[in-house]
Structures are given as C-alpha cells and as structure tokens.
Predict the structure.
Amino acid sequence: MRTDPVTLQVLRNHVRAAAESMATTLYRTAHSTFVKETEDFTIQLLDAHGKPCAVPIDLGATWYPALDYEAAIALVPGGYRPGDIAITNDPYSGFLATHSPDIVMWKPVFHEDEIIAFAGGHIHNVDVGGAVPASISRTLTDVHQEGIRVPPAKLYREGVLDEGLLRVLLANVRIPEQNWGDLKAQVAAVNTGERRIQELVRRFGVRTVTDGLADLLDYAEGQARAVLASVPDGEYRFTEYCDEDAAGGNPLRLCLTLRIARDAAELDFTGSDPQTLASLNVPTGGHPRHSLMLVGVYYVLSALHPGITLNYGTIRPFTCIAPPGSVLNPSFPAAVGMRSLTCGRLRSLIFGAFAAAAPERLPAAPAGATSIINVAAEHPRTGRRTITAVAPIVGGGGGMPHRDGTDGAGADAAYLKNSPVEITESEAPVRILRYGLMPDTGGAGVHRGGMAQVVEFCATAPDAFVTARNRDRSVFQPWGVLGGDPGSVGSFTLNPGAANERDLRNTDALRLAPGDVLRVISPGGGGRGDPFRRAPEAVLRDVRAGLVSTEAARRSYGVAIAGGAIDAAETARLRTARPERTGFAPGAARTAHETRWHAAAYAAMHEVLADLPPSRRSFVKAMLFDAVRGAPPERDASEVIREAFASWTRRAAALPSLP
Amino acid sequence: MTWTIGADIGGTFADFVALESESGRLVTLKVLTTPDDPGKDVGEGLRRLAGEGIDADSVERFVHGTTIGVNTIIQRRGATVALFTTAGFTDILELARLRMPNPYSLFCERPPPLVPREHVFGVHERMSAEGETLLVPEARDVAQAVAAARAAGCVGIVISFLHAWRNPAHERDVAAMITSIDPTLAVFCASGVWPAIREYERTSTAVLNAYVHPRIAAYLERVESELKEAGIAAPLLLTTSAGGTMSAAQGRRDCVGMLLSGTASGVVGAGVVARTAGVHAALTLDMGGTSADVALLRDGAPSYTAGIEIGLYPLATTTVAVASSGQGGGSIAWIDGQGVLQVGPQSAGSTPGPACFGRGGEAFTVTDAALLCGILGHGKLGFGAIAPQPALAEQAARPIAERLGLPLAALAEGVLDVAISGMLIPIEQLLARAGAHASELTLIPFGGAGPMLAAQLAETAGMRRVLVPASPGTLCALGALTAAIRRDAMRTVLLPLEDESWSLMLKTLDELSVEAVETVTAMAGAGETEIRRAADLRYRGQSFEIAVPFDEDTDLESLAATFHAEHERQFGHAEPGAPLQVVSLRVFAARPAPPLTLPRRAGRPHAPRTLGQTPIRLGGQTRQATLLSRTDLDPGAQFAGPAIVVQPDCTVLVPPGWMAMIDELGNIDMERP
C-alpha cells in the first residue's frame, strides 16, 4: 500500500462521507417519485480510470458498486475539460447503462490540468420513450423499441448546457419534466462529488488523495481475496432455469462453472442459453468483470465477511467468461429492458455455485422472484387515470447455516420497500383483501426457508389493467441444500376458489372484469439440512405461530403434534422410519425437465446453435424444443435435436429459387 | 425564592440542574445511575440538592427525563401484549416495510417483532379508504380473540385496523367490547396513540407504547413517591421526544411521547445556549461513551422529523431530528484484516470502560488515546469519579502500535483522527438532507466527550466556530428546565388542496386545537396556551411532505405559495401550478416554561490566569499547550490555542490556530480566523 494504515482509514471515512453526501443530495432533489419510493439509483466515486472507489451504503440500489465507467468515458468525443458532464443510456455503447431507462452521468474532477477522479451515478428514469409507457416490456424484441438511446456524450461543456442534446432527449420521452428534473438531481450529485474531492486535495494534497483512491481498491481487493482463500479450491458447476425465455416460451437455462484457485475465481458461463427474442438479455459486452454479472458475488462476499468494502477492487480477483450471443452477452440489437428477471436467476446461479464450494457457510436458494404488480385504472372518485404499484411481492430467504430464512423478505430482495395498503387504497381504485405470509411455503429443513408472501386484491373501478413484471419461479422451485426441501413455487391466480378460477402462471398483463379477484403468491425460500433433524420444539413453535400446519409438521418434519404438544413417541417413530437425507433438492419440475433435457441434449443443442448468427439462435431453440416435445418420450432428445436441425437446414436451403 | 429542578438520567450519571428564578443561581450535580433500582438515583439527587440548601417548599417545577422506555425496548424487557388487526393483515409486523438493514448481505436480518405472530389476532371488520364501514366487527369474534389473548398471558391489547386514521369507530367499538369483557386489560387503539396514515408505522408506534407501558407506569409511580418523600409538592413533568414536557398522568398513556426524552432535551438545552449567545445556525454534538448524536438548530429551534426508529422499530410520532454515529469516548481501536486502523463500533461503554479508568477494561479506546495525546489527564474525570492512569492506556495501546509499527503517541493521534473522520459520515448526511453548509454552522458540543474533540471535528467538517456551553455535562437537564408543556395533535386528512377542501381543513384544525388545548390545560392548569398550526403538503403522487405553517391570515393561495417556495428551498425545484395534496394537519399547543434568564456577566478583555504549560500531541508533533481551569475563566478572558481547559464534567481542547474567548454567559467561544 502507498498509504499508511491510519491515513487510509481517515481517507476511507472521508470518501464514504462524500459518497453518502452525493446520494443524499440526489435523493433530496430528484424529481420522480420512482427515485424516492424504490431508490432505483446509484452513486459512485471513481478513480481517474473510471473505476469505482467508494459508494454509499445507506441509500440506493445494490447492483453497481463496481460498475466500470472506463470504456464509456473513452467514447466521449473530444476529451474532457473542467466543467464537462457526460451522460449515456445506450446499453450497447461501453456497456455502462444496462437498459435504456438507466441514464448514467459522470463528471471529471480536475487538479490543475489533470483528471484525478470522476464523480458518477445513475437514475432509473420512469420513461425514455419507445414502444410502451415506461419503455420496458418482456414482449419487445430489439433495443430500438426501448426508447431513445444517447451514446456517451457531453450534456455540459465547461459548465454550459448542450441545449440541443437536451431537446432531442426530451422530445423523445413521455414525461419530459420528470427526466429533466432527475437529470438536474444527478448534476447536483456529481457537482457535490467534484467539490468534495477537491476539498480533500486541498486538505491532504493531490498525491495522498490519488494514492489513497488506488489503495482503497487494493484494500477491497485484499478483503475479497482473503474470503476466496477461505473457500476450498476446485471446480463447482451449477445450473439455473428461468421458467420462460419469452411469453409462453421455453425454459431459459443459465450455467456456471466456478473455478476457485487460491485467492482468485473464474466464473465461466459457457453453456448458458442463447440470447432471446424477448427483452430478458443481460448486456455485458463480455466484460470480464461487469458489475451486473457479479451482483451475486457481492451478496456472497457480504455474507462471508460482514461489512466487506465493495468497490472495483472487490471484483479484481474475479474473471467472467460470457460467450458472445448468449443471454448473458447478447449481440446488438437484442432487447434488454427486462434483464432484471434474468439477473434474479443469475444471482441464484452464483449462490448455488458458491453453496457447492462452501456448503457449511452459505444458505439455500432465496425465493428469487419479485413480482412488480401495477394496476392502471380510472379512479371513479377523481376521474384521474392512475398507475399504482401493489406490494412488490417478495418471497422468503433461504435457510441459513445459523438460522431460518427470513419470512416474506430478505436475502437478495432486501433492498425493496413496499407501499402501505392505506396509501395504495387511498390513491388507486384498488382494494387489498389479504396481505401476509403464506404458511407451508418455505422449504423444510434444519433451518427452513422463509415463507412466501401472498397478496389478494380486486379493482374497484371497471376496466382495470394489470401488469405483472418479473414473474418467475412458477415452474422451477428455489432449491434446497444439504437435505433440505426446495421452497414452493409462486402462483398467479384469477378468482381463487371460485368457479371461474384460472391459473395465470407467468402472464404479465391482463384486463380485469368487474368483481375479479387476483391472488399472487411468491415463491418460498429453500430449506437447509434434513428437516427430520430440525429440533421438534422449533417445529412446534412454527405450528403455534401458524406458519407450519400440523400435517406439514408430520409430513415434512416427522414431528407429530397432538393437542398443541409434541407426541414424542410418535415423532421418534416417524423420524427413525426414514433414512437421513443429504444433498441438493432441485424440485420435481426441474428433475423432470432435466430427465428429458439432460446434459447431452443441451450439448447437442449448443453444438448446432454455435454455427448460427446470434440473432437466429432463439428462433431455432424454440423449434428444437417443439421437436423434442413432439417426439415420443422413449427417443433420446439429443438425437431428436440433431435430426430436427438437419431437417430445418434442408428446408431452409430448399427455398424456391427466384423466377 | 422559587426553584425549578431538571433531572436527566443518562447511561452512567443522573444529572441535576436547579435554578433559582430571581437570582439566577444555578446548582448542578451528578450522581451515579442505579439501573438495578430505577428511581433510587432520583431520590439520591433530591437529597443532595436539599443538602445544597434548596428548600422542598420552594420547588415550583420538577422536570424529568429518562431512558427507561428505550432501555425496555433495546433489552426486550417489555410487556406481553396482543395485537388485533383487520383479518387478512395479521402479518403486518412480520412484513414491516420489507426493506431490511444491510441489504447487501444474504444474512441480513431485523429483530423479531415485539408481538410474536401467535399473539396477533385478525378481527373480521373493514373500513374503506374513505372511512366508510364495509364490514362491522362482531362481538363474538372479539370475545374469541380476547379469550385467546388472555390464555396466552397477554396483559395488554393493541387494536390497529386499516384506515382507522380516517375513521377510528371500529377501533373504539372493539376497545369497548374488550373492556366490558375484562376491564383489567390495558387497551390501546393505534388511532388514539398516533392517527397517521401508513398502517405499519402506526401499528408499530402503538405496539411500542403498549410494550413499555407497565414499566413506565411503575417507574413514574416510584419517582412520584421519591418526590413526596423529599417533600416536593410540585407535579412531576416529563421531557418528551419532541423537546417539550408533559404531565406524568399524560406520560402514563402516551409512553412513546417520552422515548427520546434525554436526547431531545439535550438539543433543546443547546438551543437555549445558541439563542442566548445569538447563534443563528448551529450543529449540536452530544458525544458520550458509546455514540455521538448530531442535530441542527436554526435560531435555537431544533428541526423535527416524523418517523424514526427505536432499535429498528418505527416510531411515527414527531421527534427532534437527530443523526447518530458509533463513535464515543469508549469506542475501541482495532486492526482489521487488511492491517488498517479502525475505531468502533464496539465500545467499552462505561463498564468496564476505557483502559485508563482502571476498572478492568483492556481495550484501547478514544478516551485512552486522548489521554496519551495529553488532552486528558490534568485532573479527575466525571466530577472527580475517575483518575485516569496513563500507564494502563499505554499498556492497551502497545500491541496495536507494535503491529502498525507506530510510536504510541502517533497511534493515539491516529485513533482520534479516525474517530473524528468517522463522525463526518452522519454529519454530511444530515447536512445534505437539510441542504445546509458546514461553513455557516457553529458547533455546540456537550456530553462527556464532545468538547474534547469538537474543534478538531469542526476543522474536519469545515466549520469555523465552536461554542462550548458553561456546563456541557448537564445540558440535557438544562434543556428540561426550559421546555414548554406541550401537546402535538395530528390528523391525516389526505385531501386535494382546493376550495372544496378548505372548510373541512379549517374544521379539522379547530377540532385539533380544542383537543390540544384541553390536554395542555389538563396538564398545566388554566392559563394562556400558545397555538401553532401547520399543514403537511406535497405534490400529488410524491411520498415526501413539507410542514407549512398555517396562521390566522393563511388562505389557499398563500398556503400553496409558501409550499412552492419551501420546496424550491429544500429540494432545488418547484412546480407552481401542479396539484397539491394535504396529507395531515397539525396543531402544536404549548404552555411555555417560566422564562429562564441565564446569568450574564460582562467582562473586559483580559488574559486569564493559567496553570502553566503541558505537552500535547497534535498534527504529528508535540507542542506546549496552555493549561487553564474553567473555574478561573471569567467573561472577557481571551487565549489562543493550543490550550486545554479542564473542568469537572469535561475537558476542552483549543487547537493551534484557534482563538478562544469567554462570553458574558460563560461559554467558551472559539473561532478559527
């Protein structure tokens, strides 16, 4: 380290204070309620190369503490002068913004003629134009439909606003005053960051500050390497599935081979599915350390080292391999708006690989799917058309080494906040009928998974339109570990218990008829450890609390409860009657899927897809799934895939010649 | 001769201030707290005050602040209570607002609810958002829940139904049903505790109230009997979280109103100092053994907030706005895995305390570091209770210094630098939230450790002036003396700000005024009650409100104009013409405390008597500092840093480059030119 161990901590406190001050300034001055309600924004203090050195902890989203600005910074034409401020929201220029609503901004900090740092951050704008209000929908197929794109460009030149750029931007969005209000809040934040860095230079001298920023990266790197060194070396493979790769589509498979060697790790995502024709793609440009790929790593490191520093140094020991044309490295112009659904699965993929590497230290899968339900309707009282969020509907955490998963919240969804029922009902023609925990949904285990959430609601106005974003885990369950049960799947039901009940699965939009009731149940967290080893008193406590039924206590835990007390003899009998269970529990749907679509079948598919241009792969994948579905079950899927592809190639070649 | 007495119970000491209103004679003293026998310390203090010649018959006012409520929550020693909610919503405490502290960790957690799930009962009832009954609660349903709650050993019941902020009728009906079944149960309606919209925060507030109620009620009885024993007939007044006072009878019901009483009255006390010294904008710093609290003052008045957390449980009532950091005099220095020096958040507290206290503490703390830097060690600490021992501090420092390869003095200074820079984080957040700039602010330090580090903190944060009160150790008790008897009444209305709403707004404000004045009169007797009114406004769709004053002349246009201007000031933008919403209406009724005149003494500029020179370590070098005793410092005394001022309740450091002057009130007024 260049800096002594006292000065480094003093500087660390100063830059953290500066980052918190930037975040508070942005939060205070932002225009859209979106920023204030969901805190979907981030702040970074960056070194002269555009690598984040410090981020706020108390405010904002959790995805970008190591977001690399370097490529985007270099794409701005004409170099930088003091007072310049640049922006971009183009997911394909420098791979800084990861979908079009995220407008990222940065400002160089000069000392004399030299750039010594940057201040940066992003806000998720409510709308940036494009095909649909709010700019993102799973149904969109290419990035041009997702709103205006600004490649890295200066919004301010030496302190002077580029009115032309601003007018073009605002002419292309639906609520321009909100975008402009939020941009001004970002300007206030980066100006605060610039001022605070310059104050540090005055106080400590430029050399101490630049050395200190470099050492903050080394410091975080050292912490991360120490954690990796404590995990056994080896190669750990894990697979995850999103229910669908498009509306009504096929499973979307993500693969990870985690190779840990001493204090470094390689994350090889080879084998993951091709980019899709829906907007579920994760634009990373194949960056070996894209922040979005490593969100799961932040959670794992923070669990293994509480309070670990997160900045670009944290991810230096990690190298990602994301094959071009895959859903984790899509080719332009694949749509990316709903990458958050895939990112949820990407996180549990990383959790799974690390749980394989250090099973004694990590939890089972969290619920892993957060439904964002919006109701658009005209309010009968005010005549105004409102769009209101109900909940978000989050599930429980996975069973942990030291305790049960948190019920109805926690793990990698803990940054989300709900809306009070009273506010929702006051502002929108919505009545919430039930909002609580769903018993018997957390995977059983020595430490059980957290329970799911359930929300039931109806609209009090006719023709209400409901959108449900990020619905997943209606098919594949959150996995259990070390003998624990998987958590239950989520569900989306119209008129539950009534004659006209309908299972909506992962439907993401529908219109309600008068009197219709919707019920959303999140997934539950996975369990950890054989549930027959759970202390019977803990099971009784859950039964008394109404979280586990007497039947489930008997069936899943081998605990007999009669008259509100444990029947010790019967419990002993139940528990000895079954051999001890260990290992991984993926759930029945996944087991069934992998029986048909085994490793060889996937290998066959990837082999034939590899030669196709990325834009065509999703189409061919759908065709191959249809072929396997249509083939007799006794036929091996690999063969079916090769035959179907050969037949398709023949037909494609045999197009009629031009007259 | 009439005396008023303020008594504030802190973590280590119980502070007493007595003021004779005509002569301005001020008596301050400290006794050790008795956490195992709460109230005994109050009796001891009263006996010592009598010993100072304060006649029980001449005591006109006795104001008390206590942390017993907060301690009950933090230590989870409260009552077993049941919660009745609207059926379908029994998980309100389990779900909270979903967001959890430390959201980056897969292991993030929050404390379990104060009412476990098996003590929560759903009642089939429903009110609409407009306050219309959709489903009437039934006696049979309630009777079943009461039977179950009693069987579970619950001694109190909180009723919290959806939309009771709009119409509390169902809550009141169910309360009556419960009382008719079992009059011994303590029953609290959430709408009666604090009728604000947002069901989780309102329910949590009511649960906190019921949870601490039995212990607070018993404690208040004990203090009243101590007063009686001492022959004091003045009624017991309690300091509130909002910086006012209330009667003991009110405090028995409104327990949450006194949860932050000590913290708030410290800020109020600093406000008295700021106002009398003519300081317009100030930052208060209350630094004790385990933490440092900071708050903003404008013209001596604190800013308020609705929505803080006590041990992560939301409290929706109005409180003085305070930000905290984990740096106190007892914060422990250590070396992390990367070989970097850290300070806190672990604290040695008051037991075992810093190593130099010689009470068995082995960890090297901020106080030990200050001793090795030569800032402390010129007399006993804490009113003569402790003689710090440098050898013990050195012994604690040595392993850390050796690992870092630093001389002891350099380590000690480093520990202070790290602690001070850590305090910067909550300060920057507080300033950014308020849109305030450090350079405009005067720092007013108090608490045992505040004055010791204040000037260095001011330099680090960019403040140029520090005002050390005459008696920094007893500022909370001073604040208690000056706080008004006060009642805040609030109702959520959620109305559009337009002509059709106006008459309902006025009617609501009138009703709130009557309610608040009646409560104040019941506490303070007949007399003139001051009334202030305010409306919490926001742009439709926003989630933040701004309280806008609402006086006699206010009309719709002026109310809107004030809101737009205030929005522009606080947030940097406004949208004149955009529709506004009235979220809540508020009335603050206050009966001011008898005016307090702090004794002023003019003095000509002069150089004070010094105790000599003493070496201190600052800025990487050892220098000679002037040593002074606070008792020798008369108004007009002037001296330059580096200097150290010792007094019974704290030590003040005046760093090099600072000029200090004693003002007419006995404050040390320091500036960095």
About this structure: Chain A touches chain B through 86 residues (CB under 8 Å). The mean pLDDT of chain A is 94.
